[in-house]
Amino acid sequence: MNGQTSGEHDLLGRHDVLDLGSLLSEAELAQRDKIREFTERRIKPQIARWFEDAYFPLELVPELGALGVLGMHLDGYGCAGASAVEYGLTAMEIEAGDSGIRTFVSVQGSLAMTAIHRWGSEAQKQRYLPLMARGELIGCFALTEPEAGSDPSAMRTTAVRTADGWRLNGAKRWIGLASVADVAVVWASVPDEGVRGFLVPTSSSGFTAEPITGKLSMRASIQCDVRFDDVELPAEAILPLAQGLRGPFSCLNEARYGIMWGSMGAARDAFEAALGYAAERRPFGSALASYQLTQAKLVDMMLELQKGQLLALHTGRLKDAGTLRPEQISVGKLNNVREALEICHQARSILGGNGITLDYSPLRHANNLESVRTYEGTDEVHTLILGQYLTGHSAFHPS
Asked: Which family does the record assign (predicted)?
């Protein structure tokens, strides 16, 4: 026995020791294979150059639309209506290429499209969702602020009623896709009403989006500083069904679910890079893979990959059954990103000095995962969510 599965049902490349792929349906396997082929053909051959050049490949957007992955978990309005597990497998296979590309799919579908689908009017859904599903219109999701990254309850962006609609003022930071988006889902504080959501065309006077430069992570992606200076909006710009933080948090949970799968894709790619390198490299006259310390690292990586994939799959089954709870999403996001980052670091150590170049993927994945670890809830935030679940005491605002 060499620990390899021979069949097409593998989840962890050729080294799915637990044969987790056998837990997938034929439809799920077909979806996985379709996205894996796309990633191998369209993302991996170019990603090192895109990362080095800090270039987000807008040319992929209509292709991703044609693949049916934009808002794929949503029903109707041109969306695929796929299962949670199919969406998770899609996130995993795309992030095996790069976290930045998977982040686009998440911002477009799990955040912007979900906000419109769940909280918008019928007219808003009809206007935006079919175009967004096809990749003909790009959305962004503006929640995080410069002074309140992990605390949206301290939101300073405001929307006030006017004779004709709304006037929006404020600032947001780390807003993915804002400089290339056509519409922004903006969360703002409304006097006497709390947090409300608005659909803001990015062509609006007073809307500005400036890409953040000098990034060491997520370089094949776009994040922006955004300002709203007396942006005038019509009355129908508001998302009528969203009031309070429940609106944006419901979207964040969709994104967090995708992250627990996606991070395992980055980790799997790093593991496979290290495994292949260890088989070919021959220090001191023997294959690097033959040394005990190397094997220990590879085994530890495989164990955490398999556990993380099993956690994601179980969570996906709960989501498809309609029983998934927020704290269970926190388990997956906290564990899988943390372990994926460690896997990438271990993989880089096997590659030695060669591992710090873009010829190999582990350090690029690790750099990206530093951002993935931070957005949609830091480790600390998810730890406190779970701490509150276990103890009944909230430590977010201790007395």
From this structure: Belongs to the acyl-CoA dehydrogenase family.
**Cα 368 to Cα 220: distance, rounded to the nearest angstrom:** 9
> Is the Cβ–Cβ distance between 189 and 156 less than 8 Å?
yes
The single residue of 37, 93, 376, 380 carrying the catalytic annotation is 376
pLDDT, one tens digit per residue, over 138-184 is 999 999 999 877 677 789 999 999 999 999 999 999 999 999 999 99
Q: Which pair of tokens denotes residue 69?
A: 């992955």
Instruction: Tell me which residue of 260, 119, 136 sits closest to 186, measured CA to CA.
Output: 119
Q: Cα–chain-centroid distance for residue 329?
A: 13
> 332 and 315 in contact (C-beta within 8 Å)?
yes
CATH numbers and ranges of domains, the chain: 20-133 (1.10.540.10), 139-243 (2.40.110.10), 247-391 (1.20.140.10)
> Looking at the predicted structure, is the pLDDT value of residue 12 above 80?
no
CA distances from 199 to 79, 104, 112, 132 (A): 19, 19, 10, 14
For 322-378, the pLDDT digits (tens) are 999 999 999 999 999 999 999 999 999 999 999 999 999 999 999 999 999 999 989
Spatial separation of the C-alpha atoms in residues 338 and 341, rounded to whole Å: 5
Largest separation between any pair of C-alpha atoms in the chain = 80
| 376 is an active site residue | yes
Q: How far apart, in whole angstroms, are the C-alpha atoms of residue 75 and residue 117? A: 9
| CA distances, 265 to each of 77, 78, 96 (Å) | 29, 27, 4
pLDDT digits (tens, 9 = 90+) for 77-116: 999 999 999 999 999 999 999 999 999 999 999 999 999 9
Task: Find, among 127, 365, 390, the residue nearest to 267 by Cα.
Answer: 365
- Tens of pLDDT, residues 185-208: 999 999 999 999 999 999 999 999
Which pTM was predicted? 0.94
d(CA 286, CA 381): 46
| Residue entry with tokens 């922006």 | 224
